[in-house]
Amino acid sequence: MEHKLYVGNLPYTMRDDDLQQHFARFGEVISAKVMVDRDTGRSKGFGFVEMRSAEEAQAAIRGMNGQSFDGRALVVNEARPREERPGGFGGERSGSRGRRSH
Question: Residue 94, Cβ neighbours under 10 Å: how many?
Answer without folding.
Answer: 5
